[in-house]
Amino acid sequence: MTIWENSVENQSTYWQENLRVIKICLVIWFVVSFGFGLILVEPLNAIRLGGYKLGFWFAQQGSIYTFLALIFWYGKKMNDLDKKYDVENS
Asked: What is the pLDDT averaged over residues 1-17?
């Protein structure tokens, strides 16, 4: 049975959990790319990472690495969610 054959309540719950995961990803990405890379760049530049200022590192590399990590995390969370609602083979 797929989610589309399940009750409307299950479909709604699945979608709410999906949106929750998306919101978490967007908040983390915003904080890392905009917060650390632009707003907090000056205080972070007082810290060095691999010889580079941390604010610069977040603006150039950290947001990219975070984005890639979020892609894998999102994939895992959605696989778990699909299994929970029995839609992994749909």
From this structure: 74
